[in-house]
Request: fold
Amino acid sequence: MSERLDVIAAWKPRPSSGLESDINKYGFPTVVHRAPSRLVEECEKAFDAGLLLAALSLVVTIPDVCAKTVGMQYIDWCVKYLDLQNTGEKMNAERRDEKSQSEIREELDAITARGIFTASDLYQLRCAVVHAGSSVIEGKGEDYSPYKVIGVCVHGDAHGVVASYGHTGAGTENLKDCAYDCVIKLEGLISLMAKGVVLFLEEDPERDCEKTIKTGIDRRGVTDFRPLNRIPDR
Reply:
């Protein structure tokens, strides 16, 4: 095994300042609930700390948590609170491997008109990231995105979500190995998600909680059961 992998395998936990509070100072366990505002806050902190993969994994799942709270679908929540377009049409033609230059021009116009990055595209990225740790859009639901790949970049600002989009292929007039792709800005998506969650919670502050069945022992959140003598002084 390489030195880097040896270090990963030998990891030992350090005291987590995220669990410190006035409650555990007096012997009571601290619980960090998976509430929407906390998820956004930790996503922003992860990005600022350079934990980009952690930030990406978290930001694409936040709509799952919020939508579940009010009985909505992921895509519908993104349309309403992130103001992303979504017509719901299939994009089968755009995913064909062979196209003419004229078809590509028409399809690019259609992608622009539909919304370059839609709620469906975000959902497909979410599935790729969560289930495969990838940017490749494939499997169930792929027909609802024109992109075979949705890349993620750090762009340097939080204004807007799309960094670039376009088409690749081999040939001149009639192209093979055709594919549309899109690259989104991670900090732009995080900023958009934060604003969407704030709007969602301003409608009803009671939504800022972790879903629970409220029976038996409470298993919500992450609970700090460390002995007091292991909690560093502040």
